[in-house]
From TrEMBL:
GO terms for biological process: protein transport. CDD domains: Rab5_related (cd01860). Residues 185-216 are annotated as: Disordered. SUPFAM superfamilies: P-loop containing nucleoside triphosphate hydrolases. This is small monomeric GTPase. The lineage of its organism: Eukaryota, Metazoa, Spiralia, Lophotrochozoa, Bryozoa.
């Protein structure tokens, strides 16, 4: 899927900048908090008991940079092993991925490394990959050291942040970092699609502003 750019006009005729649309996929073991991260990012909400995703869930959210509005088409995939065979269907054509592990579970970090290898081997060669060490609010139960994950991310050219869907720590920031790293020009992009003249920003809560370009 190509990023699509369009110039948006304000009522007074001043240009607001481009709209770029990107497909982003979340990968990781079951129960690491993928759906909770997306829910926190898109709606500013957190549910203590989040039902497991079946197959994949689709949501959208926008991030506003200085002169560009980045619209993420987010695919939140199921972490159960029985759904692994479906994963390529979701990461195929994705321009970005967040691979999530639970800092209190070493096995989920090892599995995250396997996802990195799979994306490097099979996904878009220019894909932007971020590694999210989730459940940072449970640091007292930590099994994966920050330095270990950071070193691994640096070796593999990944963005890396520890996050907490519960407290919202670094949730917006990791999506913002991805938005900044994605290319904003695409020579092969098709022109603006019908209806691409306006930017729709999802209503959000929990400190995430609903007005476009009003903050992270």
């Amino acid at each position: 899927m190509a990023a699509r750019g369009a110039s948006v006009q304000r009522p007074n005729g001043a240009s607001q900048g481009k709209i770029c649309q990107f497909k982003l996929v979340l990968l990781g073991e079951s129960a690491v908090g993928k759906s909770s991260l997306v829910l926190r990012f898109v709606k500013g909400q957190f549910h203590e008991y989040q039902e497991s995703t079946i197959g994949a869930a689709f949501l959208t959210q926008t991030v506003c940079l200085d002169d560009t509005t980045v619209k993420f088409e987010i695919w939140d995939t199921a972490g159960q092993e029985r759904y692994h065979s479906l994963a390529p269907m979701y990461y195929r054509g994705a321009q970005a991925a967040i691979i999530v592990y639970d800092i209190t579970n070493q096995d989920t970090f090892n599995r995250a490394k396997s996802w990195v290898k799979e994306l490097q081997r099979q996904a878009n060669p220019n894909i932007v990959i971020a590694l999210s060490g989730n459940k940072a609010d449970l640091a007292n139960k930590r099994m994966v050291e920050y330095e270990e994950a950071q070193a691994y991310a640096e070796e593999n050219g990944l963005l890396f942040m520890e996050t907490s869907a519960k407290t919202a720590m670094n949730v917006n920031d990791i999506f913002l970092a991805i938005a900044k790293k994605l290319p904003k020009t695409d020579p092969g992009a098709r022109g603006p699609q019908q209806g691409a003249g306006t930017v729709q920003v999802n209503e959000s809560q929990g400190g995430q502003k609903s007005g476009c370009c009003g903050g992270k």
